[in-house]
Every structure is written in C-alpha cells, then in structure tokens.
Design brief:
Number of domains: 2
Number of strands: 14
Shape: elongated
Helix content: 25-40%
Length: 404
C-alpha cells in the first residue's frame, strides 16, 4: 500500500486520539500499558492503535476477557474497530472464523482469555489486549500471547485496562520494555454524559472505589498506610512562596534494576507541597545524579536529601560531581519502611500534605506501603517519605526550649 493510500485511509478515521490516548515514544517500549478509569477512552486508544497497524501489518490479535467482550466492545462497540475504520477502511467480522478482515487484507483474530491454549500456534505482528485485570488467567494468557508475537522486525503489544491490585499487573508494570500511561475518567469528560462524572463523584468521591474505577489507580485494600480518601482530597495549587524546598533521592540498590526515587517537596508554614515526581529507571549513577540535580535547579531546592544506606559516601560523591545548586544531606534508615512512613501517613490524614499536580504512580506506591504485596521497591514512596520527614518532622521543626 502506497503512502498516499495510507494517508487517505488515515483521514477517514472518525476521530483523532486525545493526548492520553496516544502511545509513548515508539522507540521506548515493546508493551504499552494504558491504565484508565471507567470511560477514560481506553477502548478508543487500543482500537486506534490496531487500526493504524492494520494499514501496515497483515496478522493481528485481539484478546479480551471473553469472546463476547472482544466482539461487543473491541470490535462492534461505539469506540471499537468497526466504528473507527470509517467508510473507507471499515473491517468486516467473520463470526465463523472469529476474525476481522480489513479492506486491504489485514486480519485480526479474536481470542478469549478464558482459553489461553487457543493462542498456541498462531503468530502475529501486533496485538491488543483489553481489560487485562479482568482476565481469568492473566499471567498465563499473556505469556501465550507473547509467544505468538513473532512476526516482522518489531512486534508490539498494547494492553488497556482499569487497574486492580493483582500480581500479574504489577509484574507487567515492572517489565523493562513496558511503558505505562494513566488517565482518569475526567480526561475523557467531553465524550461522556454530563451527569456521569458528577453523579459518581458525589456517590463515591474520595473512596478507594473511586480511586480505582475513576482515577485508574491501583488501590491496595489490606494493611495500607495511606488512604485513598486522604490522597483524593490532597490536591492544591503550588503556593507563590515556599519557606523551604528539598529534593529527596532514593538511589537504586542495583545498576539498571530498581528505579531511583526523585521527589521534590516544599513547605509553607505547617503544610507540605509535593511539587514533582521525577523518578526514573535504568539510569547509571551519573545519570540519576544529573536528573536529581536538574530537578533541584528547577524547583530552586535548598537541599538534596539522599538515602545513604545502599551507597554511603558514594552517594554524596556522585551527587557532588553533578554540580548541585544546594547542599547535600545524607540520611540513613534505622527502622523499616512502614515505621518510617507512619508519621508521614498521619500528616496526610491530618490534611497537612498537598499534591501540586497528578502523581498516580506515586500514589499507587503510597497506598501499597504496608500491604505486603509490592513486587518492586517503592522508590517513589521512599523518596517522598524522606522529603516530607525532612521538612515536617526534622530537627528544625521540633520545639526548642529557650531559657528566659
């Protein structure tokens, strides 16, 4: 198919994706995981991506919780593949062979996650997996699907789902080739009934159910220190003036393994304000040090607070080589993560910590602290705990006695 033909087909698409429905930089992932609330536009994102792939690749896969879901949602739903193709590129469904065929001959075969073995044998250039967290056997089915992604030079997978705190999802998020984007239901408000969000927010706003189903955040239910309702009400604008700002760094224990937690927090009077979460994975020591110093310059930090348990004075040396604009303070953990986080969780409960922006990955880790079901180190949460502790619970915040 020529370039001009592809251009005409693309112009026939009924709608362009919103920013949150657009995949990350193509070179950065093999699996794109889009987590979103109900009605956030996940189906449109997956269908749009598969439609573009159908222009170039002949063999595709569609996997849903059941075959009924594949047909009714992914294919024939209002944001599904048939609607998205438009008059010029609308595929036809062959129910007897469970396949969708586009005018150019590209084929997408439908599979149910109820039957992982049905994925043995077929092979594909690309695949779209919908509502992964609702699959009966998510890990097993995903493995079978990936064994079939072996055509072409660069097979890709898109996974769309409302998140649930299941181990298979956490393992997927932690994969080196996975890139995660998130969107709450409100991001797609223009395409929803006006009363939909208003009604659900009035009924469930601030609850764990709203955090999961509307905000698209993985919510832990047992043993978590940080409550969804506290995180839901902690949004605030950044103050014009801050008394003190720190950037906390939680260095990775291994090179290229865990992420380096980098979180900026400021204080105004007795209130803490989370300014940025620039946590990054896969960086060298010089790389994460340079990133932390860049954040410190951006937020005009008064100090870099770095945990030294893993690297000792090496952490200070690496940060110093990056030419920081402020002093470096090393902190050492003498108690466990839960014990360190408990006073900070109490500050959230008191309404004394505010988030100046949306930090879903950070909030997921905060709610997972204490649940005992984290598959990775909570680097973002650790960095936040160090920063808030330094600003709100440090020595300079303790009462001082003066003899009169």
């Amino acid at each position: 198919m020529g370039t001009e033909d592809q251009r005409r087909l693309l112009s026939a698409l009924l709608a362009e994706p919103l920013v949150h429905q657009t995949p990350p930089d193509y070179a950065a992932w093999t699996t794109w995981l889009m987590l979103g609330g109900r009605g956030a536009g996940k189906t449109f994102a997956g269908a749009h991506w598969i439609t573009l792939n159908a222009l170039a690749y002949p063999m595709l896969a569609l996997v849903g919780p059941t075959l009924h879901d594949v047909r009714e949602v992914m294919i024939e739903g209002p944001s599904g593949l048939k609607a998205l193709g438009g008059p010029a590129f609308r595929p036809r469904w062959e129910a007897s062979r469970r396949r969708l065929i586009w005018p150019n001959g590209a084929v997408a075969y439908a599979f149910s996650a109820e039957d992982p073995d049905s994925l043995r044998g077929p092979q594909f250039h690309a695949a779209w997996a919908d509502e992964f967290c609702a699959w009966p056997k998510p890990a097993e089915t995903l493995a079978m699907l990936r064994f079939g992604l072996r055509l072409g030079e660069d097979p890709r997978l898109v996974v769309t789902s409302t998140p649930r705190p299941i181990r298979a999802l956490k393992a997927l998020i932690a994969e080196p080739g996975a890139r995660v984007t998130r969107a709450g239901t409100s991001a797609n408000a223009a395409h929803l009934a006006p009363a939909f969000l208003r009604t659900l927010e009035s009924l469930y706003g601030g609850t764990r159910l709203a955090a999961q189903e509307l905000d698209g955040i993985i919510v832990e239910t047992d043993g978590g220190l940080f409550r969804a309702e506290d995180l839901a009400r902690c949004r605030a604008a950044r103050p014009a003036r801050l008394d003190r700002v720190v950037v906390a760094v939680d260095p990775p224990a291994t090179a290229g393994g865990d992420a380096c937690g980098i979180v900026a927090v400021g204080r105004r009077d007795d209130q803490a304000f989370v300014l940025a979460d620039e946590t990054a994975r896969g960086l060298s020591p010089a790389g994460w040090a340079a990133r932390a110093v860049a954040v410190a310059r951006t937020v005009k930090a008064d100090a870099l607070v770095a945990e030294a348990n893993q690297g000792g004075d090496m952490v200070r040396a690496v940060l110093a080589q990056a030419d920081p604009p402020c002093r470096i303070t090393l902190v050492r953990a003498s108690v466990g993560k839960r014990a360190r986080a408990e006073p900070v969780a109490a500050l959230y409960e008191q309404g004394r910590v505010s988030h100046c922006g949306a930090f879903p990955a950070l909030e997921e880790e905060l709610m997972a602290l204490g649940s005992g079901d984290l598959d990775h180190s909570p680097d973002r949460a650790d960095a936040l705990v160090w920063a808030v502790s330094d600003l709100m619970l440090g020595a300079e915040r303790q009462p001082r006695l003066r003899t009169l």
